[in-house]
Amino acid sequence: MNKILIYITFVTFLLTFNSSASTEELIVGAGQAPTANILKPIEEHFEKATGIDLVIITRSPKDALMLLEAGTVEAALGGLSFEDWMKYMKQEEEEIKDPSGLWHMSVGEDKIKVLIHKDNPVSKLTKEQLKGIFNGKITSWNELGGEDIPIAVVWTKNLGGNVIFTKKILDIPLLRKDMSEVEDSQFAKALVKSNPGAIAISPLGIIDDTIKSPETPEIKRPITIITQGEPSPNVQKLINFIRGEGQKYIKQ
User: Fold this and answer.
1) pTM > 0.85
2) Which three-class secondary structure state does DSSP give residue 203?
3) Kind of pairing, strands 220-228 and 102-111?
4) Are 105 and 81 in contact, with CB atoms under 8 Å apart?
5) How does the average pLDDT of the chain come out, rounded?
6) Which of 11, 20, 53, 198 is the most exposed place for a label (fewest CB within 10 A)?
7) How far apart are CA 203 and CA 200, in angstroms?
8) Is residue 196 within 8 Å of 69, Cβ to Cβ?
9) How is the beta sheet containing 53-58 ordered, strand by strand?
10) Does the structure show a pLDDT above 80 at 192?
């Protein structure tokens, strides 16, 4: 039994154990961008407006789609176009054999942001500078107008934005061999906050005044929702809320 199957089985058990017969639930799997930008900001308001408990399982886009395939969640959301999502699944050796059975639409947009320590004096990074940082050719902040301290790259393994960042900024997947890998953007943010030389990428929704986001080339990506066939009534209520009243709360 592989790790994904074990995880799906465990999540299914927890959801079954914790479910209440008297409460209507909508369980969705989501990557970090849809969670931080859309689902968490609207969660309380959606539940109040609809009477539906929104249960969010935040994992990678791959895991979110595997949970959908297993029937554990009613919808999967990720910071990728549908086409890029299918390519990503193939790269992760979890290719969807019949994508035609999946319904999908864009429900928002994310901007991939670069995170650095709040005291880092660097205020702008070009595409070429970012390429140099992430492929290891630039190793100290003094090469970029900053202090003479080593650059510590933090790479978030489960971030769907890695696909578009690699395609639009790195051109080819050349990554430093000395980088620190973490599971999600909150861990990446914590490392950046604690290390004056650190740099990471994250969804827009992670940004706050505890870290700094320098000016960089704009990197936009769609946030896509996928269901098995047509959306269920509760998923449609979620989509309608996101596109309507939820716009007041969504981070854009």
Assistant:
1) no
2) coil
3) antiparallel
4) no
5) 89
6) 20
7) 10
8) no
9) 53-58, 25-30, 75-78, 220-228, 102-111
10) yes
Radius of gyration of the chain (CA): 19
Distance CA 63, CA 182 (A): 16
Q: Which domains does the chain have, with CATH numbers?
A: 3-110+222-248 (3.40.190.10), 113-218 (3.40.190.10)
Query: What letters, b where the CB count within 10 A reaches 16 and e where it falls short, cover 197-228?
Result: bbbbbbbbbbbeeebbbbebeebebbbbbbbb
- Cα separation, 81 vs 72, in Å, equals 22
Candidates 4, 3, 47, 55; CA nearest to 30 is 55
- Token pair 């009534």 is found at 233
Note the pLDDT tens digit of each residue in 85-100: 998 898 888 888 789 9
- With b meaning 16 or more CB within 10 Å and e meaning fewer, what string describes 53-78? ebbbbbbbbbbbbbbbbbebbbbbbb
